[in-house]
Amino acid sequence: xxxxxxxxxxxxxxxxxxxxxxxxxxxxxxxxxxxxxxxxxxxxxxxxxxxxxxxxxxxxxxxxxxxxxxxxxxxxxxxxxxxxxxxxxxxxxxxxxxxxxxxxxxxxxxxxxxxxxxxxxxxxxxxxxxxxxxxxxxxxxxxxxxxxxxxxxxxxxxxxxxxxxxxxxxxxxxxxxxxxxxxxxxxxxxxxxxxxxxxxxxxxxxxxxxxxxxxxxxxxxxxxxxxxxxxxxxxxxxxxxxxxxxxxxxxxxxxxxxxxxxxxxxxxxxxxxxxxxxxxxxxxxxxxxxxxxxxxxxxxxxxxxxxxxxxxxxxxxxxxxxxxxxxxxxxxxxxxxxxxxxxxxxxxxxxxx
Length: 353
Hints:
This is General transcription factor II-I repeat domain-containing protein 2B. This protein is 59% helix and 8% strand. By secondary structure, it is mainly alpha-helical. The protein folds into 3 domains: 5-94, no CATH class; 107-279, no CATH class; 289-352, no CATH class. The model has no long low-confidence stretch (mean pLDDT 88).
């Protein structure tokens, strides 16, 4: 490994037969600078290599860095400057998994993380201490093994590490006391409640993060999972207000006197999810025309599709085929481009995202 920045270019495309291709097209070492222009030239080189045209680009997802989304000199701005997308506007997205990561950072219980990380680092820092702890756990007949290292880089490790330490908190408390490193927070009921809440909410965020990974997902599938999580946040907030810990088992074991702090944290999460995924919501009806065309109102969609959509929805044969076949199979076999050119075009765009 080196300190050289790496530019990963992942391409997802769809042909006229609705065959979807996904692959990591290139991994470029950015040896000197990582300006928007540098990224643009690297991307241009990759597209030329594969015989792909910028004008056929339906959407682009980035990590949101200034070199990617800068107003004048960012990658997206340069693409729009050099190529014509007047026929089909280029959709710009901030990577959905990265967005979730940024939202998760708003769950700021630094007082908990600082103590837990310090404790884990003490246990893991020296081989002797580490072996002593493993032996101690065996003597206590604990069902849990070695604690997990915390990594700032690997976000998922935070949830696993928190959960493991919480489950072992009594054993760790005694062990650290024997080492002359008493942890006062492990005897503080309020701190333990914060710890329990952080374990539970991080686990929920981790589950969402995992659901968003993998191949063969469509943009509406991913957005649907975000929508579902936003609904879960509303449920969490309502239940915690009523001291209902059905979905917060770690917090429940701490029996908190007040849940106001946790309700406010979830409210803050709701706000950030709503803000960060607004770009997806702006294209929600285009998605719905693709995955559920018979259940979208013509008045809600782009005017260029309205007439076609009414004709489409009034065709009983198409409705039957859509109901009884897979999404891509329907568009590849039964949707005639000559009859529904704009719906066909929208389907290609959505399938490529």
